[in-house]
């Protein structure tokens, strides 16, 4: 008998790693590393090795019968990567080869902040112009934290109108929520969350569960996005085992609001049982727990159910 373990080896040190629970399919409690690719201009190198006998651990002490290395690239040939720094604007624009016009995507990462480029790189490799926007944790010239408001996003949309593209015509929300103060800045969002800090829970290993910060879903319309005024298609992708954000409850309320407003025909909800918070491009390593900034948060998701989702591997 032989076993075919897969080992991920990154050829660049420009990555973000967090400690996390391994797949349940291993049937034992071990720790692994979650990779978030920062340098999309280099590939992830995946080494496949075949060993004699059945091995569950101690691979480094055995010589493989044979090995092969595959490269997973985020950028297709001739895709342009352009850093955007105009005024307050901070982001990276990915442009596919050709004369266009191209469909456009404004790519907004979640609450961990920073500039996350690998989704935009993959989209550009498939014919989309994609702008990976940095909007959380932005520092001013004086080194002070700057909390952007809605005008920051509007500027980015205006920026895309100067390019040879087709403007975004829909909204895709992954593991998100519509619960936020209207016309507020990120500072207002953080202040609202701070009021509910006593709702933070911990699991048996003291990992933080954030999802109750926004629950129960408020009835006050001033605390929610006006879903009834949306005039474009909306796709919600939800993990039903999300322990980081109340995605399921938010999706249900958004659907209710749009049904009452008569625009629910614009809404599509993809909801996956046993799936956690980090819904990422295919073939990303799945982890049950990961670090969120300085704290370890419980993103959860049962491994087999999570991996069965067509969008999800992490």
TrEMBL record:
A Pfam family of this chain: Bile_Hydr_Trans
Q: What range(s) does the Acyl-CoA thioester hydrolase/bile acid-CoA amino acid N-acetyltransferase domain occupy?
A: 29-86
Biological process according to GO? acyl-CoA metabolic process; fatty acid metabolic process
InterPro entries from the UniProt entry: AB_hydrolase_fold (IPR029058), Acyl-CoA_thioEstase_long-chain (IPR016662), BAAT_C (IPR014940), Thio_Ohase/aa_AcTrfase (IPR006862), Thio_Ohase/BAAT_N (IPR042490)
Residue ranges of the BAAT/Acyl-CoA thioester hydrolase C-terminal domain? 167-298
Q: Which GO terms describe its molecular function?
A: fatty acyl-CoA hydrolase activity
Family to which the UniProt record says this protein belongs: Belongs to the C/M/P thioester hydrolase family.
Q: What is this protein called?
A: Acyl-CoA thioesterase 19
């Amino acid at each position: 008998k032989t076993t075919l373990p897969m080992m991920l080896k990154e050829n660049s040190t420009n990555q973000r790693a967090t400690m996390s629970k391994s797949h349940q399919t291993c049937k034992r409690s071990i720790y692994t590393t979650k990779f978030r690719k920062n340098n999309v201009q280099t590939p992830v190198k995946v080494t496949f090795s075949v060993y004699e006998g059945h091995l569950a651990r101690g691979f480094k002490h055995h010589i493989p019968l044979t090995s092969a290395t595959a490269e997973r690239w985020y950028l297709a040939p001739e895709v342009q990567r352009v850093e955007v720094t105009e005024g307050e604007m901070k982001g990276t624009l990915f442009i596919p080869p050709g004369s266009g016009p191209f469909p456009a995507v404004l790519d907004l990462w979640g609450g961990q902040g920073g500039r996350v480029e690998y989704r935009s790189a993959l989209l550009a490799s498939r014919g989309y112009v994609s702008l990976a926007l940095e909007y959380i944790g932005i520092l001013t010239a004086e080194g002070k934290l700057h909390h952007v408001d809605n005008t920051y996003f509007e500027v980015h949309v205006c920026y895309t109108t100067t390019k040879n593209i087709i403007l975004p015509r829909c909204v895709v929300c992954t593991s998100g929520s519509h619960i936020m103060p209207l016309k507020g800045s990120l500072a207002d969002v953080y202040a609202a969350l701070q009021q509910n800090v006593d709702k933070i829970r911990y699991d048996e290993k003291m990992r933080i569960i954030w999802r109750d910060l926004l629950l129960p879903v408020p009835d006050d319309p001033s605390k929610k996005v006006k879903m009834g005024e949306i005039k474009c298609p909306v796709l919600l992708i939800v993990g039903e085992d999300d322990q980081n954000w109340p995605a399921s409850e938010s999706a249900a309320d958004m659907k209710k609001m749009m049904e009452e407003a008569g625009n629910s025909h614009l809404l599509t909800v993809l909801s996956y049982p046993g799936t956690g918070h980090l819904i990422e491009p295919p073939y990303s390593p799945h982890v049950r727990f990961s670090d969120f900034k300085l704290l370890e948060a419980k993103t959860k998701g049962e491994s087999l159910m999570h991996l069965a989702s067509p969008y999800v591997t992490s």
